[in-house]
Structures are given as C-alpha cells and as structure tokens.
From TrEMBL:
Name of the featured protein: GDP-mannose 4,6-dehydratase
UniProt xrefs under Gene3D superfamilies: NAD(P)-binding Rossmann-like Domain, UDP-galactose 4-epimerase, domain 1
InterPro entries: GDP_Man_deHydtase, NAD(P)-bd_dom, NAD(P)-bd_dom_sf
Keywords from the UniProt entry: Lyase, NADP
Chain ranges of the NAD(P)-binding domain: 9-339
Stored PANTHER family: GDP-MANNOSE 4,6 DEHYDRATASE, GDP-MANNOSE 4,6-DEHYDRATASE
Catalytic activity, reaction form: GDP-alpha-D-mannose = GDP-4-dehydro-alpha-D-rhamnose + H2O
Enzyme's top EC category: lyase
Protein family according to the UniProt entry: Belongs to the NAD(P)-dependent epimerase/dehydratase family. GDP-mannose 4,6-dehydratase subfamily.
C-alpha cells in the first residue's frame, strides 16, 4: 500500500506535535482522522490552515470529538476510521501540572494509551493497525546514565512521567503478547513556534518579544539550571512516521545529542531581541537577570520549582540514525532564534497586543 491511500488516526491533533504530524501525513497523501476535545472556545488554532470543510467531497482531514478518558468513544472512533496507523499524541503533557492533577494525568496518559490498544484488540484490528506511542525522555528522570539511550534505566520523577512509564510498558507488552506493531518514540524535548505558551522555551521567547515591544515588564521563571536536549518538533514528527514504516515495531530515542541550560536559552532569546542580560543573582533562588541598562527583567520565582526535578536530559539518537535514517537538523540556538522571530511577528500582528 502506498501512503496515498493510507488512513491515520491522530489523538492530540490540536497540540503542537499533532499539527506538524497532520501536515506531514496530508502531504504524504494520507486521509487523517483527528481526535479533539470539546472546549468552550476554539482549540483548533494550530490546525486551522489544514482545515477542510466537511461538506466537500472526500475531505482528507476529519475531526472527531473524543477524550482519552472515554473508552467507548475511542472504540467508536477507531471503528469508524479504520486506521492503518494510530499516533497516540494526546496527553496532559505538562510536568508541573501533573503534580496538581496526578489522578487525571494517570487516567489520560497511562490508561488512555491502554484504552486505544484495547480498542484495536476488541475490534480485531491487531494485524491491520500500527500504533505509535508518544513516550518521553521524562522516563529517564533522575540521572542514571548520560547520554540517555534506549537501554538506559528509567527513573520517573513526576506523576506525568510515572503515567508515561505505564504507557511505555503496556505498549511493549501488547507488542509481545499480541504481536501488535506498536512502537514507543522516546522523544526528548522538542519545541517550535507552535509550542504551548507555558512550556519554558515558549514562555521565554514570548516574554523576550513582549519585553522588547514594551508590552511586558518582567519574566518570572523557575529552575534556570535545568538542562534540556531541545530539538525542532517538525523534524521529530518525521521520526514518528518513520517508526511506523519499519517492518518490525521497536522503541527509539529521538534527540539532538546536545544539551542546554534554561539559563542559556534565556540569554539567547534576549540576545535575539537585542537585549544583553547580566546575571545579578548568586543562586537560583536569588534575584535574576538585569539588562545592561540596569533594569531587572527576569526574576526567579520558587513557585515554578517542581517537588522533584529532572536536572539533566541529553539523548543519544544513534539507533534512530542507523535504523530509521532519522537525524535532527535544527540546533537549539537556531530554534531559539526561530521562536523569537515568530513571537515578534505574532505580537506585532495581533490587534490585542497592538492596542495594548
Ligand atoms: P501538547 O500539550 O501541545 O498537546 C497535547 C494534546 O493532547 C492536545 O491536543 C490536547 O488537547 C490533547 N489532550 C490532552 N488531554 C486529552 C484528553 N484527555 N483527551 C484527548 N485529548 C487530550 O503536547 P505536544 O504536542 O508537545 O506533545 C504531544 C505528545 O508527546 C504528548 O503526549 C506529550 O506528552 C508527548 N511528548 C512531548 C514532548 C515535547 O517535547 N513536546 C517530548 C516527549 C513526549 P487540547 O488542545 O484540547 O488541550
Ligand atoms: P519539561 O518542559 O518539563 O521538560 O517537559 P518544560 O518546558 O515545562 O520545563 C523544562 C525545564 O525548564 C524548567 N523551568 C520552567 N519550566 C516551565 N514550564 N516554566 C517555568 O517558568 C520554568 N522555569 C524553569 C523546568 O523546571 C524544567 O526543568 C516537556 C513536556 O513537553 C513533556 O510533555 C515532555 O514529555 C518533556 O518535555 C520531554
């Protein structure tokens, strides 16, 4: 079968990765079914440019209301869409929020993955349907080995990571127990101009743009000493797709192999709007950054510290490079630049920001 007549089902279609993945799959000729949650206001902004009027003949992007906590709904959507490939991207994906909503996070992120796998089994689609699970470098948690690769032991450090650990292992189990083509992509942090505004990179690039344009006074951040392996989301969704094109299902790390301090990302973002920062504090819980003019723009606020932190993530993508032919292109430095430029543009265009 060529990709031209394949059908994919994507959960989390309204999120960052969902948007880039749908774009890729449509380009490849797939018919794509997406699961979106009901919301009191529009939540399809990231895929608006891909929207297809359901009244036209044979639309190739079809959206269904659904939720990872609702088994019957998921079974019905899988039955209706008859997918060749399922990409399970839906999740309560914010690590810090998972400390406040641990039970919901487990329900959506852990049991949600099980519900989809069971839907495949209940409908007798084990032979037909391939499955991608959005696993995460958060599984590595407390550092056991650097760089982290497929064989590195897991040590989750949050309710989010513990939920994703269940999802990881249930995927492995269904692969072994029922011969399903089910793969885990253990993806290190990936960002883009579409990144959610409360994740640290986007929070920083938006603030740098807003401060530059005189629309924000100060940025409050948490642990500036954390280190992350940041890649570009557009490149990572290609890796997801490649995993499902292999004859055999397996688990793969996608990462850049480069790690950066949050502190460094802050400096890059402000450099990109022409503000040079000087570090004034002695430690993470003291003060923050001031600009050359002496105006203090960034302050550390302990409210953003996590009860247990993941201090260092650095991935080794060698297996994906060798077996999938996947590699990243964008460096963290270029990623910061692209995100800042995009936020500057968005703010200059947005009437709310313009009038503020
Ligand atoms: P986002 O937070 O941008 O998107 C998450 C998506 O899941 C949104 O579409 C959201 O809907 C949806 N969702 C949340 N809860 C439910 C639910 N109960 N039922 C149905 N849909 C739900 O995440 P990303 O796109 O960044 O990440 C995609 C996946 O990859 C997630 O599973 C994440 O945990 C995982 N991951 C992400 C990494 C990253 O660096 N981005 C790295 C490793 C793994 P809504 O828009 O309505 O909120
Ligand atoms: P992470 O991403 O927890 O790695 O999870 P996030 O951007 O939230 O945090 C990265 C690091 O920055 C530190 N930090 C702050 N984080 C946020 N959100 N806000 C702040 O103000 C702030 N200040 C410092 C954090 O403590 C952390 O160390 C992301 C998500 O996409 C997960 O779904 C995914 O699984 C992992 O990446 C890989």
């Amino acid at each position: 079968m060529t990709t031209k007549n394949k059908t994919a089902l994507v959960t989390g279609v309204t999120g960052q990765d969902g948007a880039y993945l749908v774009e890729l799959l449509l380009e490849k000729g797939y018919t794509v079914h997406g699961v979106k949650r009901r919301s009191s206001s529009f939540n399809t902004g990231r895929i608006e440019h891909l929207y297809q009027d359901p009244h036209v003949d044979d639309p190739r992007l079809i959206l269904h209301y659904g939720d990872m906590t609702d088994s019957t709904n998921l079974i019905r959507i899988v039955q209706e869409s008859q997918p060749d490939e399922i990409y399970n991207l839906a999740a309560q994906s914010h690590v810090q929020v998972s400390f406040e909503t641990p039970e919901y996070t487990a329900n959506a992120d852990a049991v949600g993955a099980l519900r989809l796998l069971e839907a495949i089994r209940i409908l007798g689609m084990e032979e037909k349907t391939r499955f991608y699970q959005a696993s995460t470098s958060e599984l590595y948690g407390l550092v056991q080995e650097v760089p982290q690769k497929e064989t590195t032991p897991f040590y989750p450090r949050s309710p989010y990571a513990a939920a994703k650990l269940y999802a990881y292992w249930i995927v492995v189990n269904y692969r072994e127990a029922y011969g399903m083509h089910a793969s885990n992509g253990i993806l290190f942090n990936h960002e883009s101009p579409l990144r959610g505004e409360t994740f640290v990179t986007r929070k920083i690039t938006r603030a740098a743009a807003a401060i530059k344009l005189g629309r924000q006074e100060k940025l409050y951040l948490g642990n500036l000493d954390a280190q992350r392996d940041w890649g570009h989301a557009r490149e990572y969704v290609r890796g997801m797709w490649l995993m499902l094109q292999q004859d055999k299902a397996d688990d793969y790390v996608l990462a850049t192999g480069e790690t950066t301090h949050v502190r460094q990302f802050v400096e890059w973002a402000f450099e990109d709007v022409g503000i040079k920062l000087e570090w004034k504090g002695k430690g993470v819980d003291e003060k923050g950054y001031c600009s050359e003019t002496g105006k203090c723009l960034i302050e550390v606020d302990p409210r953003y510290f996590r009860p247990t932190e993941v201090e260092l993530l650095l991935g080794d993508p060698a297996k994906a490079q060798t077996q999938l032919g996947w590699s990243h292109e964008t460096s963290p430095r270029d990623l910061a630049r692209e995100m800042v430029q995009s936020d500057l543009k968005v703010m200059q265009r947005d009437p709310v920001w313009k009038d503020a």
